[in-house]
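<backbone_tokenisation>
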Amino acid sequence: FITTSIGRSFHVYDAEKINLLFVGPHFDHDVVSVLSIGDETFASTGGRVVVCRRGKRVCELEAVSRGEINSLVQFGDHVLGISEDNTVVIWDRNTRELFTEIEFERESFAVTALVHPSTYVNKIVIGSSQGTMQVWNIQSRRCLYEFKTMGSGITCMVQSPVIDVLALGLLDGRILLHNVKQDRAVMQLAQEDRVTALSFRTDDVPMMATANSEGDVALWDLDNKRLMHVLQNAHDGVISSVDFMVGQPLLITSSADNSIKEWLFDGNDGIPRLLRSRTGHFAPPQMIRYHGDDGRHLLSAGRDQTLRFFSVFRDAQNTELSQGSLERESRVRHARMSALRFPAVTQFASNTAMSRDWDDVVSCHQGSRDAHSWSVERKSLGKYTLESSDSSIVRAVAISACGNFGFLGLASGVIEMANMQSGLSRRTFVGHTKAVTGVHTDACNLRVYSTSLDGTLRIWDFATGNQLHCIDMPSTPSHLIVYRESSLLACACDDACIRVIDAESTRIVRTFSGHRNRITDLAFSNDGRWIVSSSLDCTIRTWDLPTGYMVDWFRVESVPVSVAFSPMGDFLATAHMDSVGIFLWANRTQFADITLRQINPHSDGSTDGSVAGAALVAMPTTAGL
């Protein structure tokens, strides 16, 4: 099994296929360290160590008032941890009681790592940021021996397959194999950047793997004392853990880039290949949309420069849409993968009508003059790069209802239409005097709708490109959405108001005001009755179109930046400014009789103004609310 901390909870995966087996309880604080012993998981959170079995809370180890507990380690029937106040805390695993504590002066010995040397009864070796080590007997609480400094701070320590020999990872990038019985260095190696984790193969191959904070994994031939291979850009962040499976040629790595990867050594050259992985956004998503009409899949664009595909029901299907052979290219160019990726996606559009025939997603990117097509069917970058004709930045994109045409809204105010099958430009729509902020089409390929920073909403003839109507908006529109079945358009404007326009009569038929800060996104419900909006005021509001009333709202701790309503009407998906996850909210009207009431959007949360603000709702978790 693989156990990993996920924010304020932890996940247990099957090591064979990295399928999710159990989800731990949701804690009040982040989980800073986890330890698995048999079917028990020890999770350190908020200064407490909680014991769980099969994802359920069982009990807690005896509480200590020493701040966060880091680096949980098993030592026989004991559990060891390093507290925030520089103390090694030891519990009895069977009785759950505190066994003993060993305190240190931070100025002379700041504890960073600890390990139990094999066959050493009741003894542990403790490393420090000063580069020194001490051997302690936990039974008598006596320091038995102190080693001389290693010349740099110790970041990690593990027992090697050889008795008496420990592997030390240092802050300056050196790796020392040190004989603790004789107090002498057996071997010294060096890598770039500080060592964050290390592990040894145990299937009769003398190999060691070490990781650094740049996301690289170095593989060492211990017989010949040389570097065999470097897995450059194995991860996009600090690698916190590397572990060889016992007796197997399988290396498991995890990182701050929100990923777990398995590497298989099945070649004669000793170089591994990526066998399987579980990844997610490692920077918050900026835009999310449902893909398809069944409400089973989501597309998400994040600040980590990736476009990802998520399944609402089977998380094993989650994947990143490939941007090409970035790993190979990064090795050739000696560059980080982040420098080779496209700039962050600012807007994208998808349509499944022609998914089996050609690309079905088009995206525009931050500061880029090009839009790119993608294929969800192949989970990869598409065939075409759609270039702006006047070299201006692409600000908005759309795909027609038939899936044959893609639209680019440019910073110059021009709208270009391209064929999704051939990538060739077919038509331009000229009229806006400033950057386009949104573009959409109707259900029958008769009209094209667009908004711009020039303060207008314009309706165009799809076939000729001629302008049919120009509507001057009371405030500059920043977002545009369309409900194709009723030809209703909704614009989020800079005055924090939502204006609904009937495309047939070209009139503003509804105005919704109440948000106290800029609106970040809009979404129509599946039946077109509601509009859901999110704002920088941390509220998510539901507006009823037939009555013109606000019928629901709630407040969240994190600013919502994007919302998407399921085509089946069962879920609302939200993305937030400081979270890498996508959150699903159930639509209660699907399974209960809910009476909707009018809420005054300018009041403090009720019809009589008696409630101080919208209800603060806890964010959903992987274990539910």
